[in-house]
Amino acid sequence: MTESPHAAEVPAVPEDPPRPASGGQPSRPAAGAPGAGRRLGGRIAAASETWLLLALVIMIVVFTVQAPGKFLTLTDFSLMGQDAAWLLVMAVGETFVIITGGIDLSVGSLLVLAGVMTDLYCIHHGGANASWAAIVVGCLVGMATSCAWGAVQGFLVAKGKVPPLIVTLAGFIAAGEGVAYLITGGADFRTVPNRLVNTIGLGSVLGVPWLIVISFVVAIVGGLVLAVTRFGRYTYAIGSNPEAARRAGIAVDRHLIKVYALSGVLAGVGGILSLASFDSTTIAGHAFDNLEVITAVALGGASLFGGRGSMIGSFIGLAFSTVLLEGLVIIGVNQYWQEVAIGAALVAAVYLDQFRRQRRGSGQMRWAALWQLRRQRG
Q: Which alpha helices (H) appear in 67-131, and where do they start and end?
């Protein structure tokens, strides 16, 4: 395998000691051995994303049987995609944060704040008849506000050593329940540029709503950044072992600030999508967005302890929670059970993550002890 030119910049992840063969030497199967395909298949079967995807398919079948002609329709899936558009965008940023071993509880409130700042600018520069130039500047103002807020939170986490839970919880309260309410006076702005609503909120390209197109583009770009760039490799390295990453020359504190700023700016993008979709700022309508986003990322296989996660996993996790909530509504389950279902899904995801960590740790210790014993006897 060809080594990456930046391989030396990222701390090596220690591998499990090789399993000893009968002759006392570690077994080293040759490349292309018949067992390679089976091992690859086993890894795929063991991947949390695979099991979650299987559970998603089963759930779709169950809801389709329970509500024939209502659930498995193109219109219903399109509506689910539009309703989850800003959640998917925020899940991209949350994936980066959780892989570093942090958490961002402020994404929902930053979405609201960005939407308020965007609409506030547009109200003073044309109102409902604002031009595209004013709309673009307003969107930049909203994203810059949420980005700066995220960067401040990242600074407190990286430099101030304040736990991410406390920092972002304070950001949730201050941004969502403080600044946004102060700006609006406690009432939603309902003067949204018509061009923004008719294009992003209601428009489509080749029959696909713009909300879905934009959210998918953000997810694809985020996945590529996480998988193939130096920024993504640094994110995994910091989440796996921040001290080792620092010794390898990675500016850990600066990278953490960037990650939280990225989460903030993507929450701002979500705020613009929400503003265009609802034709209003909907200040009180995103109280559980942070819980839904974190649940989606955790369900997708990201470890809340850091160092593990993928964008495709977060996408499948969000699809699972979205289909679950929509299915419960269609079959007539009380809406309050939806919150219970999301909470239970998050607890289950955290439990499975802890279970995987314990199994992985015990397996590594067992093989390390056996390998050491073999070496002493040899």
A: 74-83, 85-99, 107-123
Closest CA to 238 of 251, 221, 225: 251
- Going from the N-terminus, what domains does the chain have, and what CATH number goes with each? 54-377 (1.10.3470)
Q: Which residue has the tokens 């201050």?
A: 174
With contact defined as beta carbons under 8 Å apart, do 104 and 94 qualify? yes
DSSP state letters, 221-264? HHHHHHHHSHHHHHHHHHHH-HHHHHHTT--HHHHHHHHHHHHH
Q: How is residue 175 written in tokens?
A: 């941004």
pLDDT in tens, 285-329: 888 899 899 989 988 889 888 898 999 999 999 999 898 888 888
Which has the closest alpha carbon to 371: 96, 20, 102, 108? 20
- Name the residue type at position 10: V
pLDDT confidence of residue 222: 96
CA-to-CA distance for 174 and 180, rounded, in angstroms? 9
The identity of residue 52, as a single letter, is L
Question: Rounded to an integer, what distance in angstroms lies between the CA atom of residue 212 and that of residue 201?
Answer: 10
